[in-house]
Amino acid sequence: VISNVVYTDPLALFLSKTAEFVPQLGPRFGLDGNKVMPKNGGVESVETAIKMARYYGWKKKNIPDGKQEIIVFNNNFHGRMITVISFSSQSKYRDGFGPLTPGFVSVEFGNLDAVKAAVNKYTCGILVEPMQGEGGMKIPPPGFLQGLRKIADDNDLLLMLDEIQVGLGRTGKNFCFEHENIVPDGLILGKALSGGLIPLSVFITNTKLMDLAFDKGSDGSTFGGYPLACVAGVAALEVLQEEELAKASEVQGEKLKQSIMKIAGRSKHIKEVRGKGLFIGIEVKNRDAMIFCRKLLDLGIIVNDSHGHTIRISPPLNISDDETGFLIKCLEEVFLK
User: Chain-centre distance of CA 16, in angstroms?
Assistant: First the structure.
């Protein structure tokens, strides 16, 4: 094991490639590029983002330390560590693990008026999934991210997006925020960042913000940014770009969604189909999604449910036409026969 205290070539390559792959974040803080903080599991990078927002509130907004508040959203999922479960809507993640961490205000996902009402003198940031996966494959109303961007700018808040599930081509764009032509101040990536091979996540932000909050030794991770993970990360980003997987997700996702909507029109079980790219949810009427998941498993399709009512369809970004056809055939078998 090479400690990440030692600067290695794979780490340098990965940090550089990741920082440049992402658009300039937080442009109101300057155009000197991005900086990347590597960690292991995604929740570690979520907590890094929380630290960033709290430090900004204390250092730049003069919020008394310990009074900082971050706006989050109902039915969120950002991981299962103690600070993050403290603002979860799900009792199964919270019960028995108190005392929980204060400093979060949760509002309805997609409701800009609720966000505006939650802002006060202690608010330092907004943490949001651009589309909710675990929360039910929820797509917010058009203009939601643009509205959050304006609220953050008007109130000097850091807008931080958790794209662990929906980034890196999943929704038909390299980044989910590109659907609304905004850029956040901070971005969290994971899962697909190493092709699912090695634990790897990152928090990315404007260079000036990263330098403001974190000095040598003020944050870090024993295995965060270790050489093997960085090699996998570089390879995954190269494949994403060279094989144009975001575009492939857009094209295959649209075909798949249209086919599923046709099935929904003939099925007595389906309530709604929603999603973008290869991030598609099938909501069923009787909250018995897992029954259909098990039937699909018997046919060779691995899917999961969300909240008991929605089947999550998230195939590999390089899914072929033949594989898409097989998936559609299995869905017809389960929902129409």
Answer: 21
